Amino acid sequence: MKIGEVIENVPCIDEFVKNIEVDSLFTSNPSLRSVVVVRDDKPIGHITRTHFYQKIGTRYGYNLFMGRHNQLIMKENPLIVDRNIPITEVSTLAMSRPSEDLYDDVIVTRNDLYYGVVSIRELLLKLVDTQVAIASFLNPLSSLPGNKLIDEKLEEALKLPQYSLIYFDLDHFKSYNDTYGFNKGDKILLYLTDILKRNIVGTEDFLGHIGGDDFVAILPHYEAAMICQRIIDEFDAFILSFYDVEDLTYFQVQNRAGKLEPLSCTTLSIAVITNQYQQFESVDRLSDAVTRVKKQCKKISGSCYLVNDNGKETYLVH
Q: Distance (Å, rounded) from C-alpha 14 to C-alpha 5?
């Protein structure tokens, strides 16, 4: 949400309006919190009700200020933001102000001209609404975008001149959960999440969490192989630290067919699809293609990635 969507109008005056007229504005409008001071319709200062009457209410304040221009009282350098700035960014700016200015209205401009103000109360209420809305689209464990945002990004990817779709999936993860419990399983998922966040870092890159041990990335280029190799190297480097090493030698678990087999260390399978030599008409077609590559990848022992960029031949790199 942009800050310009929640503005309210308050009076603006030029810097030569006398303080007696400012007093009249506040007196005739008991709910008026502030007045914006403009020069050629551009905001240059701010007069809050509290600050105004603190100045006027001093021993000689009334005689000193009331008949003079408001520029003697106005607060200079107020927080001024463009209407297109996100609420989350404005809230950070507002909360970083000096304590005496913390609850002043935020002045909003349009093309550098005065547009309106936003109270701190309204800003915080809308910020909460925005954060709740954002949270509803994020995976609660990884805080990465979930399925709704993933679907939107896949639709956008189909329109890109270049893209690589990368699907990350853990092997033998179910047996780890069955052996060590879901809490420790979540730690592996967070371990993988951190690795992915360190490596999927381009300004136009997208990283999402489908759910469980399935993650997806969309890159606006074909340079996925080197990134996949780094991710695998980092993942394999410390994955054994999540195990009791003896368990990998002596412990047995049931596989999906119900038969006992030795506990295997969790590995990472990465499937990559690009549009370099093939085009996809829909998200369903794209998803089907990367799923087929993932199934091939999971047949290979150990962490690996497969890149399929022509729809026929698949290139394997460990």
A: 25
User: What is d(CA 261, CA 315) in angstroms, rounded to the nearest whole number?
Assistant: 30
Compute the distance between CA of residue 182 and CA of residue 220 in angstroms, rounded to an integer. Answer: 35
pLDDT in tens, 219-253: 999 999 999 999 999 999 999 999 998 888 878 77
Radius of gyration of the chain (CA): 29
Pairing of strands 206-211, 113-118: unpaired
Residue 317 to residue 250: CA distance in whole angstroms: 31
pLDDT at 38: 95
Collapse the DSSP code of 112 into the 3-class scheme (helix H, G, I; strand E, B; otherwise coil) and give the result. coil
Q: Could you read off the pLDDT of 67-108 as tens digits, one per residue?
A: 899 888 899 999 999 999 999 899 999 999 999 899 999 999
Residues of the chain with pLDDT under 50: 313
The pLDDT, as a whole number, for residue 65 is 86
SS3 at position 111: coil
How many CA atoms are closer than 13 Å to the CA of 225, on its beta-carbon side?
A: 10
**Contact 167/214 with Cβ under 8 angstroms?**
yes
Element (H, E) at 215: strand 214-219
pLDDT score recorded for residue 250:
77
Q: Which of 220, 228, 218 is nearest to 195 (CA)?
A: 228
d(CA 16, CA 39): 10
* CA 303 to mean position of chain CA atoms: 30
Cα angle, residue 87 at apex, residues 85 and 89 outer, rounded to 5°: 70
Cα gap 167→37, rounded to integer Å: 55
Virtual CA dihedral for 269, 168, 156, 206, nearest 10 degrees? -130
Minimal CA–CA distance to 144: which of 235, 213, 91, 87? 213
Q: Could you say which DSSP state residue 109 is in?
A: E
Within a 13 Å sphere around the CA of 275, how many CA atoms are in the beta-carbon half? 21
First-to-last alpha carbon distance for the chain, in angstroms, is: 44
For the entire predicted model, the pTM comes to: 0.64
Strand, coil or helix: 230? helix
**Are residues 302 and 267 in contact, defined by beta-carbon separation less than 8 angstroms?**
yes
